[in-house]
Each structure stands twice: as C-alpha cells, then as structure tokens.
Amino acid sequence: MPVYATPEELNNGFTPAGNVLAAPSGFDVPLPEGTNPAPQQDEPSVWGAAFRQNNLLGQMFRPAKQFEPVEGYNPYADKTELHGYEQWGSVFADSRSPEETAWLKQQIDDENEDRRVLSEAGGEGVLASIAAGVVDPVTVASMFIPGAQGGAVARIASQAAIGAAATAASEVALNNQQITRTWGESASHVAAGALMSGVFAAAGAALSPSVRTAATREVADALDNMSITSATDTAAASLPEGGSVGAARISEATLEDLTPAAGGPVGKLARKAGSYLTPFTRLMESPSKTSRRTALELAENNYTLQGNARGIETPVAAETRVRGWRREEAAVVVTNKQAYSQYKAAGGDLSFSQFREEVGNAMRSGDVHVNPVVQEAAQAMRTVVNRVKVAQQKLGLLPPDEELKAIGQESYFPRVYKVGKIVNERDKFRDMLVDWWSRGEKTMSREEAEITADATINKIVGAKIPQDFANVFMVKAAGSTRSRTLSVPDRLMKDYLESDANYVLQRHIREASAEVELTRAFGNKSLEKQLKDIQDEYDALMRQNPKDQAKLAKARDNDIRDITALRDRLAGTYGMPDDPSSFFVRAGAFLRSANFVTKLGGMTVSAIPDLARGVMVNGFGNTMRGYSALITRSPAFKASRAEQLKMAVGLETILHTRARTMGDLVDSSARTTAVEAGMERITDAFGKLTLMGHFDDMNKSVNGMITSDGILSGAFAGRRLAKLGINDNMASRIRSEFEKHGEVINGWHIGNFEKWDDQHVAGVFQSAVLKDVNNTVITPGIGDTPLWASTPLGKTIFQFKSFATASYNRATLGGLQEGTGQFYYGTAFQIGLGALTYALKQSANGKEVDWSPQKLVIEGIDRSGILGPLMEYNNMAEKASGGMVGLGALLGTGTQSRYASRGFIGSALGPTFGLLDTITDVTAGVLNGDAGDRVLHNVRTLLPGNNLFWIAPLINQVDPGMR
Hints:
This protein is 59% helix and 1% strand. It is built from 46 helices and four strands.
C-alpha cells in the first residue's frame, strides 16, 4: 500500500503528534516505480463546522494535549512568533513551550476556518447551525424544564427566563471551549435567548423549545455583528471644513420655505400642541427668517420644510457634525482597550485605569514610556489628538505649538484639572505656583506671583468646561498693561492633573468638536453675527408693523434666548451653575447616576417599540430587507457596517451615548472625589449589562444601511434628500462619486466614500446618513427638551423624560409632516409593540395582565412614545388624582403601568425625589424595627442592577413585595 508523505509542518508551525510516519527502510522495501498522484483534498464540512461552533459535544471530545515545558520559554519574547494572532494575545499567556503555542494557533485557525465555512455556506450554513443547536445537550435539557402555568403572558415570561438561563449555561461552556468566542458574543446570545424565547412563546405551543433555541442562535449571531472588532481609529476623513455644508439654495429660502410642512389637520394640531415645549419648536414658529435658519443650522431635527418640496435643502446642523466626531472618541476607547489586552498578555500587572493613566503620562512626555505597549498606545492616540488640535488651530481656537510649549507642555495633552483636589489643597497649590514663578522661573516678584496665583486658581475653579483651561495661564500681572502666557510645567502639577487618557481625551473631543463646528458654521463660536442679524431683522419688522412692536419685541427676546441656549447646550455650558463643584450640584449628579443604575435595568425591553421606527420611516419592505441582511450575515451588511463606523453610526456598544442621554447623565468637566469617579465607572458597567448598546447598534446599523442605499441608488425622492441636506446638484455629485468608487453587493449600494475625489461631497453624504439614523432611532438632541430641564434642579425633575419630548419632535411631528402611508401603519405597528412590552413587563414582575382592547391600546400608546410629553402629563394627572382624572379614568383602565409603582412624589418631581422618599421609608422602617415586606422590597430597589431584565425575574421570586 503506498504511503503519501505529509508536510513536515503546517503553516502555523504546529506538527500534529503521530501525523508523520517514519520513512520505510530495509532490504525488503521495493524501489519506487513512479510518483503517486496527489490525494484528493476533502471539501470542508459545513455540518462539522456548525456542530463545532454551536454544540457542546462538537469539541468535548477534542483530545487534551500534554506538552513538555521548555525552561525560560516566553511566547511574547519574539514578536514574530505571534504575528497574525495579536487579537488573541492573552490566550498564549500560559503557554510553556513552542509546541503548545503552535497548538493554540492551530485551534484558532480551525475555529476561524469553521466560521468562514459557515459564513460562505449560505442557506446550508444556517440550516446546519439550527440543527446543531437543536441537539445541543443544554437545549435538550431545557425541553424538560416546566414553564409557568396559567395565562399566555405567564408562559411567555417563563419561557423567556428559561431561554436566557439555557443560553447562558451553553455560552459559558462554549466560551471555555473556544478561543475565538468572545464574551461580547456570548452576551449577545444570552440577550437573544431571553428575547427570542419570549417572542416565540407568544406564537404558541406549536414552537418547541428546541426550535426556539436553534433560531435564537442564528439571531444572536446576527446581534453579535454589532460588536466592533476592528479599531475605529482607522476611520478617516473628518467632515468637510469651512462654512455650512447646506450649500447654495438655502441662501435663497424665504420665510415660507423655512416653514414646516402642514401635515394635514392632525399635523397642524400636533404642531400647535407642541410648539411651546422646546426651544427648537418655538424657533420654527418665529416671524424671523434668520432665527429659523440659525435654528436649523444649530440643532439636528426631523422637520420637513415647505421649501424641501421645491428642492431647497435643509442645512446640515452643527450638532450633526459634532456627533460625527464621536468616531474619534471611539478610537480612543478601542485603542486603549486593545493595548491593555496586549499589555496583560505580556504579563503586565497594572489595572485598566492605572494603564490608562500611564498612557496619559506618556502623552505628556513626548509619547515615550519605559513600557513598549504603553508607548505604542500613546503614539497611536497622538493621531487622534493631532486631528483635533489641527482643526482648533486652523480656526484660531488653540494657540500654535510654540505657545503650547511655552506654558510648560513637552508634548500636547489637554490639561484637565482635578478641581476638587485644588479646592481642598488650595494653599499648597498656590504656594507651588508662587514658588515657581518667583524662584524657579523668576518671572515676577513674590508679591506679583501671589496675586497672579490667586487669579489663576479662580479661573481653574470657575471653569465650566475643560476648554476653558487652555487660557487659565493667560494672565495680566500686577502693573502690566498686557496679558502674557505664564509657564508651569506639567511635571510640577502632575498631582493636580487628570491623566486617565480615556477620561481626558473623550471629554476634550466632545467639547473641542463643539467649538470647531460652531466656528466653521457661523464664523465664531459666539454666533455674534447671527444674533446681530436677528436684532436687525426684528428692527425692520417693527418699523413695518408699529402696532405690533410690543409683541415683536417679546418674540425677539425669546428668539435670542433660545438661539443662545442651543449654542450653549452644544458647547455643554447651558444651565451650568456658577459653582459646578458645589455640594448640591455634585449630589444631584450623583443621585441621577444612582437612579440610572437602580431603575433602568429594563430599558432594552422598553425599547422594543423602537423596532417599528424603521417601518415608519423606510416602509415595511425596506426594513425587512435590512434586517434580513443582518440576520443572514450578508457580505453587504458587513461592508456597510464597516463604512458606517467611519460615519460615527453604530458606536453605542463603545460609547453608550444614547443610553446616557436618555438617562440624563451629562458628563461633568472634572471628577471631584473618588466616590464620584467610582459611580461613573459603575454607570459605565451597568450600561453594558443592560445590553442597550448592542440593541441600539443593531437598529442603527440596519437603518443606516437602508439610508445609504436609498441615497446612493437614487431611490429617495428629492423632497427627502432635501430634508437630509442634499439638493439636486449635490445628489448628482454624490451619484457621480458613487459611480466611480462605489460598488453594489447583493443589491445594496456601498459608497466607499473614503475613496471619493471630492471629500466635501463625502462629508455631506455622511452627515445625511448620520442625521437620518438619529431621527429613525430617536436620539435626543440639543433642541428636544425644555430649557428649564438643563438647570441642576431641572435635570433632576426631568430625568428619564427627554425621550418623550424627543420622540414627539422627531417621530410624531416629523412623521406627520412627511405624511406617508408608512408612517401611519408603522405607528400602528409601534403601538402593537408597546402593548407587547407592557405584557412582557407585567409578566416579568408577576403581575396580572389586563387583556382588554382599551387597556392594550392605551398601554401601547404610552410605551410607544408617539404622544410624547402629552402622555406624561396624563400619567401625572392620573397619579395626582388617584386615577380619577385622565385617559385611564375615561376608558376605565386605571393608571398606566409605567406609573403604577411610583409614588406621587416620584411621579411629579422625578426619580431622585422618589429615591429620597424610598430611602426615608427604609430608614424609618429600620429605626422602628419594622422590616416588613414593603421595607425589604424598597431595599431591593436601592441595589444597582436590581431590575436588569435578564436577572430581575429571578430576584422577583424571592422579593416579598412582588408576591
């Protein structure tokens, strides 16, 4: 029998034991008579790949290898040894020999090959994955777990819990078996297990647990596509520079052109009802054309203008362009996370926060550090810092490099002061400044230095945003007529400066981008010219209408107030108190964070009605086509997803900006105490545990894909394009660029905008997609909440209500103005999903579901957000009157379920006052020795994460207050 020689080693260096036979030898071995033909290569097995990826038994019998340790062996010593495997660098930490390293690399190759085979197998791959999931041991076991008895909702909830638990158990085992399986992927599978099990249970007993689990695997794999595995810091071109991207025709717009479309009788009524709610809705009713245009150039919105039908484009808002800078912020987070993984794999012992501080210190010291990984991270983030710095310097917002060095920075790293530490150690900090200026540099006398030091400290303590810190050393010394820049080296103030690279750079990017975009759009960040033009226009109106002077004067004052408020909100300074570090301001922020981590664990379930927004905007066919591309892992979806990351679409898993905005968590300019810094870390961790980021990224990625395709293919009508900032001329230029550089994959148009010759056109395209996605998946902006809600007290009272007003502005008013049929049937779908959310939440909380049609409709309307603040007013009235006033009383359905568990104080004054009421009740119960069911339940509600949707059903079983 002929023996075919095997290669001495595979490409990755691993030689399987026993795979190479010794060459036969001896006197009785015949000489070879020719060359044997090469054996036929077996095709990769789709079914084998599916079972190895999705079934515990697939790798359970993989033989465990024993390797002889090699003394002094370190897999990280030779950088080339792990070339191509850096993503899994931490896996090799325990390798003790070259053979073990090669074996691990072989396993990674095998797992990646299985994923490739399944991805390219199409329908067969899906079928094989489903089959593998059906016979998974955990799935089989879950068939014998009895669900809750009783009504349909009880069965739905129990199956959701069983699905989550079974998927979690399976994922833990698979994660331990597979190197390339990430915990983020497993989290997506667990979330899908809970949601899909509940949904399929609602379909009836015809669907078995095995089918539910198998389908869940495929949907969860699609959910995991939302994870960002490639560094976003490769995202290239920034949005176009200079002036408004609104282009030519907006300059021709009349007051009528800038008037919102009527939207029929219902649209007119809705617009009138909400016209005084927010600064943007008020400005769009202004008699001043300049006020309306400035509002449109400032605030992102979903209004359809009468001029859009005539091809006059809505200007791209500065707010949309600021949101485009979030890709730079995401680059910072991703870069540090990947660098830390490499650092730990190399045996580093610093915590993640300590590692980030070392990166910050390196960036202050010429991007040099004794640890090569820290140094590489600092150098990688230097490109991000330089992009922001250059944009600021071009517009005169930051001194040139020579001046930055003059204030004592070896290499530019934004200075963010530890304000609390400076306040607590003012004398020590003051003496340090005085000694340096009077003895170290000898730039002034001690008396002058003392006066200058006090002025400098007052500037630092009074700064509202870190951008103000750039000028704190521009001082006028006693007896001098000119200001000058004083030098204080970073090394001298190191203990008083924030060094965490994530913390400093994320906040720097947010605040610097606002200054940059305001200056680009309006000539300066103060909007000086626009405010003067508004004054002049009102003066002319008063001369033309002398009888209405008093009325016009009031309208003028209101317009100027609202315009400056939108400007300051974008800059992050509106409503900020004179003393941001005061106890009451900090306590309010801390309590709002506490509300977030104790009350919003079910936000992902509450967001189920968001799935209908795509239908309302893009129609049922387009939306289903988009979700189909996601679920089947279409190559078009992968290409679109990669491009959207560069547009800052779908970064919620990294930044959680939408969840934080809806939770009214506004980042402060400086962390004052360790407790506050700790609470910030808790809110970040809690945001990840809610899985809201994954859910948001899924919706945004799908809808972004649909929007991009509609623009590039020419499928969108001119009116919709004009609403997105694209006039006929710009649409033609976009299509021309696409024809040269774009591609069509499975019927989807992919722009490849980084290759476009005209990057200004690319910027308009990016902004249009980003705006449409933020309007489809409602993302509250600067014009979507009342002004009083930006004050410290207003933030506390209005917490968790920003989505209601944003939904009314962007979904209800915007949809009525468009007047399409898909808006109306999409609204019906959204109300239906709202009713489903009500049923799921009631069941999860062990409460009875009212199946009467009127109850389901009113709950669906309430949870859909379609009536926005109007339902909030109704719910508060019902709570205040004990259910005697409001829609519940009119229809006989009682108070809406969202408000049922809230006390009157919490309903009227917000969750913070409700929290204080709960704390008071618990304290009184403990002091009086009354630790009854109510007190124990209240204690539970004070625990962070107590109502996370995937754990709350289990806690409810032992919570006496839920019986």
